[in-house]
């Protein structure tokens, strides 16, 4: 399973700050499509300043700061690559890769201050996490006080949750503050309180901007986006936020947002957006310490999807739904026979399957398939654990070693398409419009559909015009994938899908053009042929080369596709040829 990249932001503005001048959206940029509102209950939030059509850019946001995540191994303060300690910045003595990194805009301000105060920090080791690096992002935020006071004021309006800290956290943070103020000799620049405030703000408002993954040279990075942090969470958002190459965020509408309506984001990574209300609300509470009261959370059917519905044991057909969805331990009631079940009973069922799912390895998709059939008699077909298992299978079929697209037998290809289409349907209600979820699912679906279309065509199960029609349909989906995922930062899973989708789109377009041309040539020649064989000599040769029954002769295909597998040994049918676009 892909690593969870939680949007660790919060509408962090429950506590009103008191800077001299009220911050407005105009302080952000002239062309933003929102205005800032304030309410006693939720603090600041943003609303559409005019009707916003789906896909419009509402604002873009540069990170106020970027820095290493906590528990980072020593890394370059200029380019964030791991360092060995061989080279050090000649001005501040922090280890870096090379001279050019020392003048990186990320590093110059802190470098100047370190030098001014004369602190010489020695990194004790390079092969394991070093807590000194936990101080870098807080320091970068603190430096805004001098380099960008307006943004610093805005940052200080964000919520810090410092009033509910346990003793251990306070102690841990004090060590960090002491490192900055004493070891780095910055006590005259930043007060103890300022440092704690910034640490609190970062703990509830920072976003993961880069997932270092398993790459040894790479580290997780986090950033602070004060304008983005003004957005409240909603479990069915009307926007999506994507990261660009320079780590800037672009917030776009996914549905029509009428003027005056609140603009909201979903703090959960899209993989978690199908999860049911009890699960989501608990997670939101423990991760971001608030209780979601959004429209979806109010609605037991969750926009009519029934993702939390369990099949009633009493009448065997009705749907059990949380009676009071906003209550963390709500009992469940049947919508058909009015039976009621204690929440402990339902929770036990949910926990049992959650454990089964966790225990199943991605190398054993047949185990997931078994789970699916077990769950189908317990849960509603759209239940989030069913959707979760289907998503895992979508990730296995066509992607995992041994299950590459070209190896997949027809029935698994059909399963993959079926699962994608099921999830796409639910996505229309839970993450509508050109959401990341839709981009991901369409991308997964396209590969399997393409392969299936080829399977049928090669075996003469469908005519060439039908095949062409299917390719054109697939091309239109591929176009949508490229539009949704194409602009995302390349160094991310979704950005990579976008790049592949763009390349495939080119290949497929060329293939469609060539086939259309050949089909047109063929039909014109058969037309002539049928036309009382008027020009027999001219048409004969053309007809023979374009006989569409002779599908192997359309081998223009193979040179166009990015991978060609000439033997279909994984299928029981003896195929004439097999062409794969991966
Ligand atoms: Zn570097
Ligand atoms: Zn330096
Ligand atoms: Zn909600
Ligand atoms: Zn019932």
Uncertain segments are 1-20, 530-582
Count of β-strands: 18
End-to-end distance, in Å? 21 Å
Output mean pLDDT: 85
When the domains are counted, the total is: 3
Radius of gyration: 28 Å
Which strand order do you get reading across the main beta sheet? Answer: 13-14-15-16
Largest sheet geometry = 4 strands, antiparallel
List the helices and strands and how they pair.
Layout (H helix, E strand, L loop, with lengths): L24 H4 L5 E6 L3 E6 L8 E5 L3 E4 L18 E2 L6 E2 L2 H4 L5 H10 L18 H12 L1 H8 L10 H17 L8 H14 E5 L10 E4 L7 E2 L5 E5 L5 E5 L10 E2 L11 H12 L6 H4 L11 E2 L7 E4 L9 E3 L5 E2 L1 H17 L5 H11 L8 H13 L13 H21 L5 H23 L5 H22 L7 H38 L5 H10 L10 H5 L2 E2 L14 E2 L2
Parallel strand pairs: 9-12
Antiparallel strand pairs: 1-2, 3-11, 4-8, 5-6, 7-8, 10-11, 13-14, 14-15, 15-16, 17-18
Verbal overview:
By secondary structure, this protein is an alpha+beta fold. The chain has three domains: 1-62 and 229-267, SET domain (Beta-clip-like, Beta Complex), CATH 2.170.270.10; 64-224, no CATH class; 397-580, no CATH class. Helices cover 42% and strands 11% of the residues. It contains 18 helices and 18 strands. The protein has helices spanning 25-28, 99-102, 108-117, 136-147, 149-156, 167-183, 192-205, 277-288, 295-298, 343-359, 365-375, 384-396, 410-430, 436-458, 464-485, 493-530, 536-545, 556-560; strands at residues 34-39, 43-48, 57-61, 65-68, 87-88, 95-96, 206-210, 221-224, 232-233, 239-243, 249-253, 264-265, 310-311, 319-322, 332-334, 340-341, 563-564, 579-580. The strands form seven sheets. It has a four-stranded antiparallel sheet with strand order 13-14-15-16. Strands 3-11-10 form a three-stranded antiparallel sheet, with no helix packed on it. Helix 4 (136-147) crosses helix 7 (192-205), helix 12 crosses helix 13 (410-430) and helix 16 packs antiparallel against helix 17 (536-545). The two termini are 21 Å apart. Mean pLDDT is 85; it is low at 1-20 and 530-582. The protein binds zinc ion (4 copies). The site of one zinc ion has 8 residues, from loops.
């Amino acid at each position: 399973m892909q690593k969870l990249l939680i949007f660790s932001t919060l509408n962090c503005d429950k506590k009103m700050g008191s800077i001299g001048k009220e911050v407005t959206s105009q302080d952000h940029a002239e062309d933003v499509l929102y205005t800032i509102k304030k309410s006693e209950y939720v603090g600041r939030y943003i609303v559409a300043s005019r009707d916003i059509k789906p896909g419009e850019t509402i604002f873009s946001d540069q990170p106020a700061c970027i820095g290493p995540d906590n528990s980072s191994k020593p890394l370059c303060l200029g380019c964030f690559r791991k360092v060995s300690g061989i080279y050090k910045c000649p001005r501040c003595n922090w280890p870096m890769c090379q001279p050019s990194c020392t003048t990186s805009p990320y590093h110059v301000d802190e470098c100047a201050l370190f030098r001014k105060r004369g602190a010489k920090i020695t990194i004790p080791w390079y092969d394991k996490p070093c807590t000194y690096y936990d101080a870098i992002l807080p320091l970068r935020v603190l430096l805004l006080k001098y380099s960008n006071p307006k943004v610093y004021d805005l940052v200080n309006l964000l919520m810090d949750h410092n009033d509910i800290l346990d003793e251990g956290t306070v102690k841990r943070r004090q060590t960090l503050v002491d490192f900055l103020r004493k070891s780095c000799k910055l006590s005259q620049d930043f007060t103890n309180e300022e440092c704690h405030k910034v640490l609190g703000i970062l703990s509830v408002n920072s976003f993961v901007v880069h997932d270092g993954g398993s790459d040894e040279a790479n580290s997780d990075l986090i950033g602070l986006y004060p304008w983005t942090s003004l957005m409240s969470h909603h479990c069915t958002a009307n926007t999506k936020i994507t990261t660009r190459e320079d780590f800037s965020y672009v917030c776009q509408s996914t549905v029509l947002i009428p003027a005056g309506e609140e603009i909201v984001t979903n703090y959960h990574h899209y993989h978690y957006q199908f999860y049911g209300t009890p699960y989501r609300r608990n997670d939101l509470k423990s991760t971001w310490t608030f209780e979601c009261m959004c429209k979806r959370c109010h609605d037991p059917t969750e926009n009519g999807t029934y993702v939390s519905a369990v099949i009633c044991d009493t009448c065997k057909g009705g749907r059990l739904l949380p009676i009071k969805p906003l209550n963390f331990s709500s009992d469940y009631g049947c919508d058909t026979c009015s039976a009621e079940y204690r929440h402990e009973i339902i929770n036990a069922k949910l926990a049992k399957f959650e454990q089964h799912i966790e225990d199943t390895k991605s190398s054993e998709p047949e185990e997931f398939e078994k789970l699916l059939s077990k769950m189908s008699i317990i849960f509603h077909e759209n239940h989030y654990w069913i959707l979760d298992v289907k998503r895992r299978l979508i990730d296995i079929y066509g992607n995992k070693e041994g299950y590459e697209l070209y190896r997949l037998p027809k029935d698994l290809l059909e399963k993959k398409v079926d699962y994608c289409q099921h999830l796409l349907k639910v996505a229309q209600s839970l993450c509508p419009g050109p959401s990341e979820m839709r981009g991901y699912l369409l991308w997964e679906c396209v590969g399997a559909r393409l392969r299936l279309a080829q399977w049928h065509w090669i075996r003469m199960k469908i005519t060439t015009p039908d095949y062409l029609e299917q390719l054109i349909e697939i091309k239109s989906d591929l176009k949508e994938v490229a539009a949704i995922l194409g602009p995302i930062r390349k160094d991310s899973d979704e950005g990579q899908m976008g790049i592949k989708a763009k390349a495939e789109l080119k290949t497929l377009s060329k293939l469609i053009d060539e086939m259309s041309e050949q089909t047109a040539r063929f039909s014109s020649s058969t037309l002539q042929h049928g036309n009382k064989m008027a020009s027999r000599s001219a048409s004969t040769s053309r007809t023979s080369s374009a006989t569409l029954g002779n599908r192997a002769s359309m081998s223009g295909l193979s040179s166009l596709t990015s991978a060609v597998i000439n033997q279909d040994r994984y299928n029981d049918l003896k195929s004439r040829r097999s062409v794969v676009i991966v």
